[in-house]
Amino acid sequence: MVLAIFYGIICFAGFYLIIKCLISRKRGVHLEGRLVGFQEERGTQYPVFSFTYEGEELTLPGGVPAEPKKFKYEEGESVKIIFDPSNRKFVDIEGSMTEYIYGIAAVVLGGFLLFYQLKKMGLF
Length: 124
What we know:
Elements lengths: L1 H26 L1 E13 L2 E10 L2 E6 L16 E6 L8 E2 L4 H23 L4
Antiparallel strand pairs: 1-2, 1-4, 2-3, 4-5
Helix pairs in contact: 1-2
């Protein structure tokens, strides 16, 4: 029973991530930013963007990790970003599907494992 609950939580987390991304991108402000570099946090690299919002110059990391050598953009390049003024921790790159892919993977994996566990318990 504990595994079924755990798998259900994984599935729910995937749905939550997808919905959170949809809401954030809808209410976010689409701006031009500039890639200014990368910052390391707990051994993971995140791109850092500089942009102006309502006259204020902001520099924030992207919400998804990226390897500098494999990143689509070079330092100094203009990048279309999405900034949610209610969340000043990070920005999203316009057109990035990484968070959606994580959410879909969690839903599919959690759903499959939940179904398998419930079938194993005799509920299907």
